[in-house]
Amino acid sequence: KPADLAKVQAFLKENSIPANMSYYGTEKGKNVFMIHLESFQQFLIDYKVDGQEVTPNLNAFYHDQNTLSFDNFYNQVGQGKTSDAEMMQENSLYGLSTGSAMTKYGTSNTFEATPAILGQQGYTTAAFHGDVPTFWNRNNSYKSFGYNYFFSKNFYKNSDKASYNVGYGMKDKLFLQATAQYIEQLPQPFYAKLITVTNHYPYDIDKEDTTFPATKTGDSTVDGYVQTAHYLDQAFGELMDYLKQTGLYDNSVFVLYGDHYGISENHKSAIAQLLGKDSISNYDLAQFQKVPFMIHATGLQGGINHTYGGEIDMMPTLMNLLGVSTDGMTMFGHDLLSQQNSQVVAFRDGDWTTPTYTKYRNQYFDSKTGQQIYLKDNPALKATAARVQAYVNDSLTNSDKVITGDLLRFDKNRGNFQKIDKKSYDYTKTDT
Ligand code: GP9
Ligand code: MN
């Protein structure tokens, strides 16, 4: 009911953090490439196998002087995996504690999503993904998010042949190459989301598609991970080279994020070997949830930013750079460039991390040293943990209320954002 939304918005207002106004609108009116790196984890950055960098192109991009690179950025997905990452990235709303919010509520709910907002700022918006349009209910959800176009597998020539096997999506090199040519045709400014897929469990790859050595943990669903990650990196490098030739590299903002972990917590011994550790603690597992978040633009003052944050924060951070006011909007994240950022990262299961403490699998750790610490005889930890846990629980509960109660249909204070008409979007070839 409207009163329920009012309560959620009161919670958000109470916990609001002012954006960093020195960055407000610095990238206004630029094209946006939103690049979704499937199953790509932060530990792969600058990682080497037999002395060879797994991802030289992404490493160079990460360290580029015009790239803002976050090294304490976490995935916050639940069972919705990629679709939870998309729900957070496009709406700054969490997925659900079980199942996929996009699948269950994507068709029917009212959203105030990035494509719809930018669409009312003169942007043409398009999503690209070399898989079937119905996966994760994208074909319906994207109409609720306000995408003008959705280029799914149906839009790519001989896409089945371009897949490792039909069950998978298209190979990233072929997908990104063809996608760049579509994007070149888009009116500018555009907001284009590109979702890769080759670097996906169980990380097997055609022999002719990689020359990179597998790791030797002996775990068959882990040892190919660096090979498919290397392939994704090559595909990314080829895309950047092409865009540099077309001029789109210089007049666009590039936002890159890893959507969630690639290697799950069931592979502890393999993870220990990859990280060169004898054993893996719950602190190590929490750290292992980090994914890249990078923002590149010509002229943007780059650097490694240590602010603790997560996928829920991507939308407010981008909107501020694009000079789009989001006052009054129902977003659970905050601008990661804000100096007053509370730096509380909520995991979907209620665990959390901050620059001081980490709570993971019912254990507490010093976030700097990884040392396990105990509530008993530790009043500082007890007080902080209680406050952080309350905020995490309230954030997740309030976000769930917005999704399960479809509360945004009652939203009156959208600023100058107009509610969209889903029926006005038609991705013809993707409905088959
Ligand atoms: C499916 C692709 C992978 O289209 O996005 O989804 P995931 O299995 O990572 O959730
Ligand atoms: Mn995924």
Folded structure, characterized:
With 432 residues, the protein is α/β, with parallel strands linked by helices. 31% of the residues lie in helices and 14% in strands. The chain has helices at 2-14, 56-63, 81-91, 101-105, 114-119, 138-145, 172-185, 225-246, 268-274, 282-287, 314-321, 379-404, and strands at 31-37, 48-49, 52-53, 67-70, 73-74, 124-129, 149-151, 190-195, 252-258, 293-296, 303-305, 309-310, 345-346, 352-353, 357-360, 363-366, 372-373. Helix 1 (2-14) runs antiparallel to helix 12 and helix 7 packs parallel to helix 8 (225-246). The site of (2R)-2,3-dihydroxypropyl phosphate has 9 residues, from helix 3.
How many strand elements?
Answer: 17
Please write the string of helix (H) and strand (E) elements. Answer: HEEEHEEHHHEHEHEHEHHEEEHEEEEEH
Q: How far is the N terminus from the C terminus?
A: 36 Å
Radius of gyration: 21 Å
Please give the share of residues in helix: 25-40%
| Beta-strand percentage range | 5-15%
- Tally of individual helices: 12
Summarize model confidence as the mean pLDDT.
Answer: 95
